[in-house]
Amino acid sequence: MCLEQVEPVTHIAYLSVHLQYIGWHGGCDLTDLKCEFSREKANSQHHNNLDIMSLMTANAMIQAQLSSLCDQFSTFFKEAPTHAAIAPGRVNLIGEHTDYNDGFVLPMAIERQTLMVASFRDDDQVHLKSTAFDEKAIFSLSSNIPTGEPTWSNYLRGPISYCLEKGITPPSGFNVLLDSTVPGGGGLSSSASLEVAMATLVETLADKNLDPVQKALICQKAEHIYAGTPCGIMDQFISAMGQEGSALLIDCRSHETTPVKLDDPNIVIIITNSNKAHELSGGEYAERREQCESAARTLGVKALRDATLDQLKDAREKLDPVTYRRALHIITENQRTLEAASVLNNGNFLAMGPLMFASHESMKNDFEITTPELDLLVTLAADMAEQGVIGSRMTGGGFGGCTVTLAYAEYAMPIMKSLCTRYREQTGIEPSAFITRPAAGARPLTVTQYTSM
To answer: Has 235 been annotated as catalytic?
Structure first.
């Protein structure tokens, strides 16, 4: 078994705070769970990657994380928090880099999330603190909040500023402490989770709500302006509007969302982090976007979503080879995404596998955003087709990060163990992995509901 390590709240803390809520997916008593954790911790140098959080229910994880966060808030700010909000990360099942081409994506919210707790101040200042960093951000509550230090605070300054512009105005300044279990740099939208959690917290502080689409759009704008990443709409949409038990087919032009059922108890999603950092502000993302826009202009369409494969083939001589391959990926990926939504809705999980593998090959050869480590993880997963793997692909913006694997639930733990062991043996890199099912989107939390025993 292997899994991600979450700091600063450790897995053993999660176990000890609300142990009565914890259980294996397959069922066992709590004594067995504690013994299994102790044996692994004592006997394995790789115990930090055990999937302890995958052994907990989603509600138990949230309760344990929020209880710990409230305690830390009281220690740091010398008072108890009064408001709380949550926003999940996401994994994209299929439909990569199609969002900024007005295309289709099929993400789901995951059972890893950003939590924020807050209390009002008696002035107009905002004090932001993260459990992951020592520095604190301090600024005045205004609709023209500047970027500033520490850098991570820009992901929060933007949503606050744009909420104020929309009339979502808290009555005073406030203190915030945040904690995230979404792996940073893994292509699981840790930044969107921060932005959407912040906007949701401002809503609850102001006692006034935005339309969910509007909230997603202002968070996207915040990432563009405050963080400098020209992302598409998918990440903020699914964090804001995820549905438990369903993925969401998102039309990135019309913003129409269609739930796609993924609640079969026999099916799970395994996310495996290559632990090769994923960084989208380095220019590769913007370069791919420019290439796609260039291809659309040559084809005479508003966006590559409107182009057909025949159109692309007819215009091949007008495009340089690289731009042609970029467009080929987008056009075929849109087709795969629509087909994936159809087969999942029909419960035809086996048909999803070839679509996921084809998507990865397209990202590798045509869009050129995979890495040798991601390619290896997908190859290792493909080798386990007879051991319960249905399909696997790179997920996220690329250039590092994670793979997403669709698998049968009863084989999930052996699959994770084999993936991590074989990957570590061949690369020397310690991976991490966890199991998830589709989670609910952003929402306010009642502090006392989750901190009372």
So the answer is: yes
